[in-house]
Design goal:
By secondary structure, this protein is mainly α. It has 4 helices and no strands. The N and C termini lie close together (10 Å).
Length: 87
């Protein structure tokens, strides 16, 4: 097992998992995204919209950062990177 000193620096959006933003702010952001998604209509959800993918990726990262339903995150790369930097 490697510790965080042996983890390669993240590229792209994975770097967000290294945020220094306070936990309370991250929780508010996650709650806001959930509220936003709950309001979408069926027609909106069925529209091809590439930004939804990024929104869901951000939601997954926030789940990891706040440990709020983190077990729902299926992105194995993000899960592994987050575990490595938190050791």
């Amino acid at each position: 097992m490697s510790d965080s000193r042996n983890v390669r620096p993240a590229e792209g959006l994975l770097r967000f998992l290294e945020t220094k933003r306070p936990l309370d702010e991250l929780r508010v952001t996650l709650a806001t995204i959930r509220e936003f998604k709950e309001l979408e209509s069926r027609d909106e959800w069925m529209m091809p919209f590439i930004a939804w993918v990024r929104l869901e990726q951000l939601e997954d990262y926030l789940k990891l950062l706040t440990n709020d339903r983190a077990d729902e995150v299926s992105d194995e790369v993000a899960r592994a990177y987050f575990a490595a930097i938190r050791r």
